[in-house]
Design brief:
Blueprint lengths: L2 E3 L20 E6 L4 H9 L4 E6 L15 H13 L7 E8 L3 H14 L5 E6 L4 H9 L14 H13 L5 E4 L9 E2 L5 H6 L23 E3 L20
Parallel strand pairs: 1-2, 1-8, 2-3, 3-4, 4-5, 5-6, 6-7
C-alpha cells in the first residue's frame, strides 16, 4: 500500500499532486489555503483522501504573511463539506502551536471557531531551527525559547494544560510530541486514517522513519518534494531559504 502525502509543500496552492494520485491508494493532503481549484480536485479525485487544514490563528500576521485568516479557511472548510466531502476525513491542524499566552489565545480562537465544523484536531509545538531563529531575529521578534530548539518543560506543561481544557471540544491528536499527555499519540498517517479512507493495510508497516518520535505509518510517499519555502512565507518554515 502507498499513501501519497503533501508534507513537503502545500496541496492547496500546488496541485501537481493530482498527476501522481493514480499511483497511490489514498491521499493525505495538507494545506494552509483551501482554494476553489483544490476543492474541485479533491472532490473529483477517484482516490480517497484525508484533508488537513492548517490553522494556527496567525494567518496574515508577520509569522504567516501570505496565509489566509483562519476564519476564511474555516469558512472554506464548510464549503468543502457542503459539496459532499466527508466530515470525518477533515482535520484542523494547529501546527505549529507557540507555547506562549498569545500563542494559546490564537489556538483557542481557532478551536472555538472550528467547533461544529470538525471534531478532530492535530497539534504540534513550534520547533526553532537555527535558520528559523535567524528569521525571527531579522524581523524583530522575540525568540520564545532563546537559543533552544524546543520548548522547555514549563512551556510544554502550559500546552498540556490548555489541551486538558479542550477535551470536550473534539479529538486532539499529536505525532512526535511525547511530552504532551492530553492528546491521542497517533501518527499524521495512522491505521485510523486508513480505516477512514475505507482501505485495508496489506501488511504491517514500521513507524518513526522521519523523526525519532514519529508515529506515522511507513507507507507514505511524498508527492510534493519541493524542499524550499512556499509562497506563504511563514517564518517558522523548516525549509531553508534559497
Amino acid at each position: 500500500m502507498v499513501i501519497g502525502v503533501t508534507e513537503g509543500g502545500d496541496a492547496g496552492i500546488d496541485l501537481s499532486w493530482i498527476n501522481k494520485a493514480e499511483k497511490v491508494n489514498g491521499l493525505l493532503l495538507i494545506t494552509k489555503e483551501i482554494t476553489a481549484e483544490f476543492c474541485d480536485a479533491v472532490l473529483a479525485c477517484p482516490k480517497p483522501a484525508i484533508v488537513h487544514v492548517t490553522c494556527t490563528g496567525f494567518g496574515g500576521t508577520i509569522l504567516e504573511p501570505n496565509v489566509p485568516d483562519y476564519r476564511e479557511q474555516l469558512n472554506k472548510m464548510e464549503m468543502l463539506l457542503h459539496k459532499g466531502f466527508p466530515r470525518e476525513r477533515l482535520v484542523v491542524r494547529i501546527d505549529p502551536m507557540i507555547p506562549t499566552e498569545k500563542g494559546l489565545q490564537r489556538a483557542q480562537a481557532v478551536v472555538e471557531q472550528a467547533c461544529g465544523i470538525v471534531n478532530r484536531f492535530r497539534v504540534s509545538v513550534l520547533d526553532m531551527y537555527p535558520h528559523v531563529r535567524k528569521r525571527f531575529s531579522e524581523h524583530g521578534l522575540p525568540l520564545p525559547y532563546g537559543e533552544r530548539f524546543s520548548a522547555n518543560a514549563e512551556q510544554f506543561r502550559m500546552v498540556d494544560n490548555w489541551l486538558e481544557s479542550q477535551k470536550e471540544k473534539g479529538l486532539f491528536e499529536a505525532c512526535a510530541e511525547p511530552k504532551l499527555t492530553n492528546v491521542v499519540q497517533r501518527g499524521c498517517l495512522s491505521d485510523y486514517d486508513i480505516n477512514l479512507m475505507g482501505l485495508t493495510l496489506d501488511r504491517e508497516y514500521g513507524v518513526g522513519f522521519q523523526r525519532r518520535e514519529c508515529k506515522c505509518l511507513g507507507c507514505k510517499r511524498e508527492l510534493l518534494p519541493i524542499k524550499k519555502p512556499c509562497q506563504h512565507g511563514c517564518l517558522y518554515c523548516f525549509w531553508k531559504d534559497d
